[in-house]
Amino acid sequence: MLEKLFTPQSVAIIGASREEGKVGHSVIKNMIEHGFAGKIYPVNPKAADIMGLACYRDVNSLPDGIDLAVIAIPAKFVPSTVEELGRKGIGAAIVISAGFKEAGEEGKDLEKRLFNAAMVSGVRILGPNCLGLINTKHRLDASFAAHFPEDGDIAVLSQSGALCTAILDWAVRNHIGFSKLISIGNKVDIDEEVLIEALGEDDNSKVIVGYLENILHGPHFMRSAERVTKRKPVILIKAGNTTAGARAASSHTGSLAGARMAYECAFRSSGILQASSLEALFDYAQAFSYQPLPRGNRVAVVTNAGGPGIMAADAIENAGLAFAALSEESHENLRSFLPAAANVMNPVDILGDAAAEVYGKALDAVLADDGVDAAVVLLTPQAMVDVRKAAEQISAAAKKFNKPVVASFIGAERVASGIEFLQKNRIPHYPTPERAVESLLMMVDYMKWRERPQRVIRRFAVNTTKVSRVINLCRKRGQMNVGEQESKSILAAYGFTVPQAVMARSADEAVSAAGTIGFPVVMKIVSPDIVHKSDVGGVKVGLAGPSDVSDAYELMMKRIREREPDARLHGVLIQEMVREGREIIIGMTRDPQFGPMLMFGLGGVYVEVLRDVSFQLAPITDEEAYQMLVGTRTYKLLKGVRGEKSVDMQLVAECIQRISQLSVDFPEIEEMDINPLKVSSERARAVAVDARVRIRGNAHE
Ligand code: ADP
Ligand code: MG
Description:
The chain has 701 residues and is an alpha/beta fold.
């Protein structure tokens, strides 16, 4: 679909210029000097020829059959030019010109006009406000960048044009090759989703990396990204925050979700690897580009110094990778050529005076071991070692096996020649052992993602009619904060157990309600104006007899009237006291980009203080629900400490999946919490002791 953009046979440059320093000059110069093999047509009404090429007055006077136009003229002329391109049959354009949405109100208007022009004419547009596009294999440099990258298999996308320039500069210096470099600009038409999908199909691109500031059409993007990440790694930096955090939240989940969380969840569940810095982005990119994927997570280390070997071992452990145990055969093998003082166990220490050949032999021995899935090679520039030769040996050994090898030559001046050799020979090199290990971790994570079975969303038999009824009732009353009892009836309709409860409007009614339910009971204030009941003294647990209940009633009413004189008090709920069980929270908040986001964590009244929570976007699979549990410290509590019995994890995971289903079934639900859900280890039982649901107004509001 984007062939005309990526591999045009002929390119018109609209706004081509003779004047050095002008964008229109850089573009034509890049096109010519970087060896574009197709035809180039400069368009400029004021020049007869530019850089030896005959110039055309306008779009109309161009010959027919041109594939791509690069536009570098003032913004105000761009929309009409795109219309002309459409009439001329030129189906793709790169709009380099700035002065659109990024440049105030007038620019926003122009961008709308550009959008319309693209829609009406059918011309596909990259940009505006971008650096352009480079396709290394096609020798196409439709950009005003100062460098042309080496040939490679990393495709780069960037929402920041300036960053593209910086990336290029640095890549050239470090011998990192690119297949394509695409500056996406304001994405009036072609966006990250379209490009990632196209690059997914591109056989010249083995890895896709990108810098994005925002993502359009969240759920749709995730689905298409998931298809691509099953085939090749996609690594992204997401800069800037979403608007999610700006919305005032009335639930625990809403207030804990934070602005970046939805992106993190979206990336995780669509297999996108997230990088936290440019450095990390290209650390990972090199590993994926240069090396085969590991088949497992067992890592071996070869080093000529003890210290760095230990650092690498620590990093392996911290990353949750496995430290490979070498076979007896490998030990023997290593012993046969290493000096007696060397360490033949992982980390294999070949000692400071090891010759270059010993590096090769040791790495060979380690990689040949069936118990090793990947290797980290470390070198410190001790007096005897020929760094460059060692690099040659390492590279030769690595090439013999289909296992990833990463290296860290620690130092600067004295290791430079070795590093350069490694980089040119596709052995990823990192300045520290930690970064080398982290890149391996990314590869292992990705391998696991690829092997993960197709997502299956479990569905439970539920009573949707009952939920609709509650929501409609609340909407009729104009009540967006659904009360505790009604929230619980929603939960009950989705298969949750809720404690028995009776409403009471006086001390006498409370006592008789308690009698019906059976002591001990819990008393809770019922008021549409009070969201967090215990904050105002509106919860009393463990009321053991009738006099406790009537005293508690009087006291609670008196206190709350003093503290919240304006609150409407409807009475109290007398509730069955759920004695056993550990308190957890399950909640949902709706992200404007990505939809329902689920939360799990330690429950109770200190949720916000302890912040032991994890998130995931709905709908969620069984495996993902389980991963949410494992992602918290609460998990260990639930497993049982100091001889306690473990709670039924499957039951908790199922509760999360039920809330996932509820939030997908009812988009009207804006946010909700079950806090606490009391999960008992004695009986396989989870009781929703408190619940809060917030709904949206009518759909047409
Ligand atoms: P809120 O969150 O509005 O302050 P809750 O209903 O969650 O009010 O009650 C606060 C705390 O009281 C809960 O975290 C829980 O520890 C305890 N609690 C509330 N209801 C019950 C109940 N039915 N059984 C046992 N404990 C309860
Ligand atoms: Mg609560």
